[in-house]
Amino acid sequence: MSSKEDLSASVPILVGPNWIIWEAQMKAYLCTKGLWQLVSGNEICAQNLPTGRNAQAARAATAEREGQEAQAAIPFPTEEQLAAHAKLQMDWDNKDDQALGIITLKISHSLRTHITDEASVVWQSLSTAFATPGPAAIFNNFAKVVNLRIQSNRHPAANMNTMWDLFERLRAQRVDILNNLRALILLNAIPPSLQTVVSVTLQMSTTEELNFDDIHNDINTIYEQTAQGGNPNAHKLSAVKHKGNDPQYNQQRSKKFQSADQPDRPQQGSSKDSEQTTQKHRKRGSGKDRGRGRGGARGGKPHEHNHDHSHIG
Fold first, then answer.
1. What number of H helices and E strands is found in the chain?
2. What confidence score (pLDDT) does residue 74 get?
3. Are the C-beta atoms of residues 39 and 99 closer than 8 Å to each other?
4. In a 3-state reduction of DSSP, which class is residue 74?
5. 0.70 exceeded by pTM
6. In the prediction, which pLDDT does 201 show?
7. Is residue 107 located within the same domain as residue 143?
8. CA distances from 71 to 49, 122, 129 (A)
9. Does a structural domain hold residue 258?
10. What secondary structure does DSSP assign to 25-69, as a single string?
C-alpha cells in the first residue's frame, strides 16, 4: 500500500455530525496535495484578459464617452500573453477539479447535493450546513459520552480515547466540560474489575484535584498489572496522591517513642557479663575469708606458744 493511499484512508466519509473530525482530516489531506489554498478561496482564478472581440463588445455596451475612451485605451494582449494566461487558467482548473474530486469521494451520497463546479464553493456550502451544529447534534454527543462504558475484556485505552474525542467534539461545539467533571464521568465508566481506581481516587483527591489524565493513567496501570497476573497495587497507585507521613517514618517514629517510654535495658550480652562479674566478686570474697581463717590459725599458734611458755616458767 502506497503512502498516498494511507493518507487518503485517514479521511473518513462525511455524514454530517462528524463534520469536526472530517474537516480537520480533509484539510490536512488537501494541504499535502497543495490544494488547500485553492479550496479555502485564497488562490483565485486568473482574471480573463481582454481580447479584441471582448474589447469591442465592452465599447459598444458603454454608453458614456469617457467609458468608451477608457475601454479603447486598454491594450490588446499579444499571442504570448494569451498563451500564458491560457496555461494559468488550465492549471487552476485542473487543481480545482482535483480538489473537487477528492471532496466528492469523501462525502456520503445523501450530501452530494452540495457539489457544484468549484471546490471552494462546495467547501463553504458544507461548512455552512454542518459547522454550526444544532441542539440535536450536541445532545447526541453528550449522550454518547455520558453513557459510554469501558469494556473489561480489552485494553481500556480505546474506550478512553473515544471518550476524549467526544469531549473535544463538544468543546468545538461550544459545550466545554470542565476537567474535574470529565474525570467524574470517566470514573463512572470504569468496570467493576477496575474499581480500585475509583476508591483510591475518591479517597486521595479533592474535587478540585480530580484530573482526567491522572485517572486515565491509573486505569492503564491497574489493567496492565491485572493482565500480567499480578495483584493491583493500590499503594503504588496512590503514592503520588498520598499526603500523609511516610510509613517507614511512622515505624521509626513509633519505635523511638516506645523506647523513650520504657526504662533502659542492658544490651545483648550484658547479662552474661554481669554474671561473670558477680562470680569474680564471689571468688575474691571467698579468698579473703580463707586468708582471715589462716591468719586466725597462725595467730592461734603463737597463742599456744605463749601458753606453753607460761607453763615452763
1. 15, 0
2. 60
3. yes
4. coil
5. no
6. 92
7. no
8. 13, 35, 42
9. no
10. HHHHHHHHTT-HHHHTTSSPPPPPPPPHHHHHHHHHH--SHHHHH
